[in-house]
Design brief:
The chain is about 75% helix and about 0% strand. The radius of gyration is 21 Å and the shape is elongated. The protein has about 90 residues and is an all-alpha fold.
Length: about 90
């Protein structure tokens, strides 16, 4: 007997649903990462009241900060993938 709200799906539907859930979880992790480095880099680089444009120093700082964050994230993912492969 199934639980309330539980559906009996065939194997293909279960696989499709699992794939969809994994994709949505990956999107959520990406959005969380973007939010994290946006906050981090904003706090680190924007020192004054923002105007219509960032100063050269602020713009350079933001670009560098985001690049370092992405480099670090990529390094961690690759390292974890290598450890899983062992």
């Amino acid at each position: 007997m199934s639980q309330p709200g539980e559906q009996n799906f065939d194997a293909a539907t279960q696989k499709e649903l699992q794939s969809f859930l994994e994709q949505e979880q990956a999107k959520a992790r990406m959005q969380t990462s973007i939010h994290t480095f946006t906050d981090l880099c904003w706090d680190k680089c924007i020192t004054g009241t923002p105007g219509a444009r960032f100063s050269r120093g602020e713009e350079g700082c933001l670009v560098n900060c985001v690049d370092r964050f992405l480099d670090t994230s990529l390094f961690i993912v690759k390292n974890l993938e290598q450890r899983r492969g062992m």
